[in-house]
Design brief:
Layout (H helix, E strand, L loop, with lengths): L1 E9 L3 H7 L14 E11 L6 E10 L4 H7 L4 E11 L4 E8 L6 E11 L8 E11 L5 H48 L1
Antiparallel strand pairs: 1-7, 2-3, 3-4, 4-5, 5-6, 6-7
Length: 189
């Protein structure tokens, strides 16, 4: 098993990030062109805690190395199952995801948490991400190690693009919603 970890601070409030994250896979984000579709399976709010729980399937177009496609198949479409929890009381947004495609050969379990920054909770959001990557295919340890190494490397590249894309979505959201607010204020004046 290999582990990928990353963290960063977004210069946006938790409210902005927790709402903007739902627009991560939108036309404003040119960094996630590999995402073909996002389908919501269920969305519920726990009446006792107020926690929003959402389940989604994310469909992606991925390019695996040629040697790997000979082992596990060559379909470029992959699916990820995602469950998220938004707790407005504690201001914690957690996203857990796992691969559905190639899951008999490779397990990728990702966790992302957004929380207000401890140093600037009203204006910054702390992002923490980790992924546990395990090659499940039997046989040679060298093949399993190589598969895990390649997956960690690719995961890191996509994670960086994801953070950059979310940053662009947050910037656009702030601008667009700010313009709309100003427009409405002008209409009321």
């Amino acid at each position: 098993m290999k582990v990928f970890e990353a963290d960063c601070t977004f210069n946006y409030s938790w409210d902005e990030v927790s709402t903007g994250a739902w627009r991560k896979y939108c036309p404003w984000n040119d960094k996630v062109s590999h995402v073909i579709a996002v389908d919501t399976i269920s969305r519920t709010v726990d009446p006792n805690t107020g926690i929003l729980r959402t389940e989604r399937i994310i469909t992606c177009r991925q390019c695996a190395p040629k040697w790997l496609t000979h082992i596990i198949g060559s379909d470029p479409t992959s699916h990820v199952y995602e469950t998220s929890y938004v707790d407005p009381a504690t201001k914690k947004f957690t996203i857990c995801s796992t691969n559905l495609t190639w899951s008999n050969a490779l397990s990728v379990r990702e966790s992302v948490v957004y929380r207000p920054s401890k140093t600037a909770p009203e204006s910054q959001t702390q992002f923490k991400q980790d992924a546990k990557i395990t090659a499940l295919c039997g046989g040679w340890q060298k093949v399993k190690d190589r598969l895990e190494d390649i997956t960690v490397e690719r995961f890191g590249q996509n994670a960086q693009k994801g953070r950059e894309g979310l940053e662009a979505v947050l910037e656009m959201s702030r601008r667009v919603f700010g313009e709309e607010k100003a427009r409405r204020e002008d209409q009321l004046a």
